[in-house]
Specification:
310 residues; alpha/beta; seven-stranded parallel β-sheet; two-stranded antiparallel ribbon; disordered N terminus
């Protein structure tokens, strides 16, 4: 009989190194799935992009049922293979609103949070969602909402804690919150915070410090800014462009590398709808910013995370 051979499996490198999220070690660069809505007419391309991310070491994905009314969650469900050890992070606090003025509406009441968790479970095909972020309206970008959606944090956390106790949620995080709200939520065992934050939008330095003190993952959305009209864009900054030219990388990679250097609690979830852009984002984890670059980048005057409302 031929000698038995042993197959060696080489793990993909961790993009950006490693961090902690919900009690497990993850790559510091993950993937934000919201932009997969753009591939509504090309499902195979969306699945291929997600699997490419997993093959390159991405092991945490940020999604939500209200992204495309379940479409994006369905992609994540289909893309995951038995060998993929991926932590799925989702969010509640909004619900799909097809045909409305916005693709989703704010849904903050406890019964709406419970219904949203059930929708996450159904569209992801899971018995438990590993991490569910409570997306509030205390900070950052939001959309108009009625007064009955101004709900007390304690009522919301009571509902989510009950769902965690029932095994439907693995861990609870927060999104679009203030320092005070985060402090109030700490006794509930929060594992992460998602707010707008980038090289050019650093309103939340105090909240980042709190996350560092409490060992909470800080997962900024809009990590390169420019997501809405009037919002500052990292890649437009002359200092960022100059650093990229000197270091032989792109301005976007400089912006992501700066975030990774800023604090070890920072995890990234940049989103894209193309494999080439995905690969470039992950390569940012291998970029070293020297003292000259860091001094120049740190000196950039930060602007408000969101433009003033009129």
């Amino acid at each position: 009989m031929p000698a038995e051979t042993t197959r060696t499996i080489v793990s993909a490198p961790r993009p950006g190194g490693t961090g902690r999220l919900a009690g497990r070690t993850v790559s510091r660069i993950g993937y934000g799935a919201m932009q997969l809505e753009r591939l509504h007419k090309d499902r195979p391309a969306a699945i291929a992009l997600l699997r490419r991310a997993f093959d390159l070491g991405v092991d945490h994905v940020d999604t939500a049922h209200f992204y495309g009314d379940g479409f994006v969650n369905g992609l994540v469900r289909e893309a995951l293979r038995p060998q993929d050890d991926v932590l799925v992070v989702t969010k509640v606090g909004a619900t799909p609103d097809p045909g409305g003025p916005f693709p989703f509406r704010i849904a903050q009441r406890p019964e709406e949070l419970r219904a949203a968790v059930e929708a996450e479970l159904a569209t992801l095909g899971m018995e438990q969602v590993p991490v569910v972020n409570l997306r509030r309206t205390d900070a950052g970008m939001t959309i108009p909402f009625p007064d009955d959606q101004k709900v007390d944090l304690d009522d919301q956390l009571a509902e989510l804690t009950a769902l965690r106790d029932a095994g439907k949620i693995g861990a609870i995080g927060l999104s679009s919150v203030s320092v005070d709200v985060t402090r109030r939520a700490l006794p509930a065992g929060i594992v992460c915070v998602q707010n707008t934050y980038s090289l050019v939008a650093r309103d939340d330095e105090e909240l980042l410090r709190l996350c560092t003190e409490e060992q909470l993952a800080w997962v900024p959305y809009f990590p390169l800014g420019g997501a809405i009209p009037g919002m500052a864009k990292v890649t437009d900054e002359p200092t960022v462009i100059a650093a990229a030219e000197r270091l032989g990388c792109t301005p976007a990679q400089v912006g992501l590398a700066w975030l990774l250097h800023r604090d070890p609690q920072i995890l990234l979830i940049p989103g894209t709808a193309t494999i080439s852009h995905l690969e470039a984002n992950l390569e940012a984890g291998a970029i070293t910013l020297d003292e000259e670059a860091l001094t120049a980048l740190d000196a950039i005057a930060a602007r408000p995370a969101t433009p003033p409302r009129h």
